[in-house]
Write a sequence for this structure.
């Protein structure tokens, strides 16, 4: 039987150890098609390259299929893959990662790893994003079985329409990981520090650093469970509409209805 | 009485006509604090600059407060404003735009205009993003009363926690705009074309173009109402969790519960 075709991407770039580990974990049971940014581009969110050319390079690693590197963002990579790489055999799943560093809470908007998975989902391919808490893990052995289990589960049972999984794995030895929990995205923000690093006439130079801060600790979330040693899995949707506020907002803002209704009456 | 302090940003850059129009519309009833990218950076999403310095410039336009320009993204601008620009007098509202080009449907993830508004919301400031359908409108007179009405309504009644408004205005003369409708975000995607524009040994060059495509037309959405001449207002939330899939996903994936409970018992 043919292995299922899986699109593999990341935001740490095509030479990142997390990507190589991911391909190694998936290859025994997936036909991996790798397309990644050629350089690290963490925290680019859903950014798309419109103001310059997108350059596409072929990479050949021993024992693996041709991989594609793009001088662009994770969203560019996935858009290119969907438009140009696949003929009739579309991938059944996209997997993004393994990111070096956690992507919990409000990071869903900044993370290039999640953006890669989201771009696949927008293009109609169900997807999973994997991140580990360490920025420089020695290896990804601790994550291997978890990645394998979750990907196999998605391949077997599928995912609901317009849903991706955001998976964060604590960088602990496999025996110390407590298990897998399904949790909501933490209501959180980054608290920023702008460190002044230079001053020229009319211009100041800063470097941005920040730490995640949880606004609401009343329920257990991805960020908290991860810190306690659990694998945190959060299903994410594409629709941002706040439906529970629409009725009130209609009362406050809507105009033109009468004219609209009158027209309808006239038509009737 | 003091005018309310309002943070003004955009993604088309500090010299964009849409920004200047926005400041002009708001200034009679708001104390505008302007901080924008120095160059156009549409479609950068929630991208944040972490791999280089952020440069901050002061701009002085006749008859207005000092404005700040940043060599970075809308998210950088708003993060900097929140961390460095305001003392005890925090803005009561942030307004992003007026963007040259619509931001409906799935654009909520790509748009720098919406990202600017979202960044303010993440930082605790309620916000509104304004866009018009034309990329090069002659002026913004048609949008003035709508922007004024919506901003005044938000100042008077506030917005629920973790909610921003995404407002799209058709580029029609004021008398031809049908009214304001509150609608959900269209279930949509961009269908991309990669136009090959060059080839060098080992490398291909492409330019990306795309058009929005609606997946589901069973309910009226922002994209469709806008096309029919309505102002489309969509309330957007920060939480992406797909709650209705959590229970099933727990059954499919969760592990470690038993051991966890055992531990709890041992402690008890």
């Amino acid at each position: 039987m043919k292995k299922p075709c899986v699109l593999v991407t990341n935001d740490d770039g095509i030479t990142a150890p997390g990507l190589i580990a991911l391909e190694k974990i998936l290859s025994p049971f997936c036909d991996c098609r790798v397309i990644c940014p050629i350089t690290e581009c963490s925290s680019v969110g859903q950014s798309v390259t419109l103001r310059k050319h997108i350059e596409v390079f072929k990479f050949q690693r021993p024992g693996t299929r041709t991989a594609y590197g793009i001088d662009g963002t994770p969203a560019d990579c996935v858009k290119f893959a969907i438009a140009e790489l696949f003929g009739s055999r579309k991938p059944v799943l996209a997997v993004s990662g393994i990111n070096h560093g956690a992507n919990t809470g409000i990071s869903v908007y900044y993370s290039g790893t999640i953006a890669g998975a989201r771009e696949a989902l927008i293009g109609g391919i169900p997807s999973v994003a994997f991140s580990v808490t360490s920025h420089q893990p020695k290896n990804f052995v601790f994550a291997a079985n978890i990645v394998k289990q979750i990907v196999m589960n998605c391949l077997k049972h599928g995912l609901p329409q317009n849903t991706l999984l955001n998976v964060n794995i604590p960088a602990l030895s496999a025996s110390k990981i407590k298990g897998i929990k399904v949790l909501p995205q933490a209501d959180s923000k980054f608290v920023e520090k702008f460190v002044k690093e230079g001053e020229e006439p009319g211009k100041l130079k800063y470097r941005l650093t920040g730490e995640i801060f949880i606004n609401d600790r009343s329920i257990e979330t991805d960020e908290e469970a991860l810190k306690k040693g659990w694998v945190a899995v959060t299903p994410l949707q594409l629709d941002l509409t706040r439906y529970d506020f629409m009725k009130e907002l209609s009362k406050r803002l809507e105009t033109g209805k009468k004219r609209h209704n009158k027209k309808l009456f006239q038509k009737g």
